[in-house]
Amino acid sequence: VQLVQSGAEVKKPGASVKVSCKASGYTFTTYPINWVRQAPGQGLEWMGRIRVSHGMTKSSQRLQGRVTMTTDTSTNTAYMELRSLTSDDTAVYYCAKSRGVMGGSFDFWGQGTLVTVSS
Amino acid sequence: QSALTQPASVSGSPGQSITISCTGTSSAIGGSYLVSWYQHSPGKAPKLVIYDDIKRPSGVSVRFSGFKSGNTASLTISGLQAEDEADYYCCSFGVNIDVIFGGGTKLTVL
Q1: B82-B83-B84-B89 Cα dihedral, nearest 10 degrees
Q2: Distance from CA of A107 to the nearest CA of B (A)
Q3: pLDDT digits (tens, 9 = 90+) for A48-83
Q4: How far is A12 from chain B (nearest CA, A)?
């Protein structure tokens, strides 16, 4: 199993960012993909998950309305778009595969994508 | 502020055992909620070391063990090694609720 994320991004406040996560080594549609971020000096924060099989998403209450999670099953790629960026969104963003088909713990992670929000 | 509380730091000498606690409310960790633990070293992706409260993934050292009782979960690392030095996070899952991470605990191997 491998999750490979897109490269680092630098964005201005108010802009949007879209991070990709290409999966391999397992049946992509079987397990949810989650997004987790870590701001500098802070802990891990769960952003949301998408059940790849039917596209159903659940985002954290804190980010609801600003984050969109999608997948492209033809390329086994998941995407996370975050809108209306502020400096507080500067963080390393990870995708992570759920261990169970309904969710649960995260058994494989991408390498992380640094998103820097700066004017 | 996280709904799961962990000590900010713990330390131990090589060969010793340490335990990291993770305490939450009944709506965050008790009953049917499942707890997992992650090891996170700087510059690396987090690594799952315990899932479903007490289970250890394939390939994770038997020195790692998990426990949960009521609203408190714990991670014990026995026979501490230098390579265990990292940040450790507990995480709680429930059906159709937000996933919650603890604030993280920095483990120092003296």
Answers
A1: 140
A2: 6
A3: 999 999 999 999 989 988 999 999 999 999 999 999
A4: 24
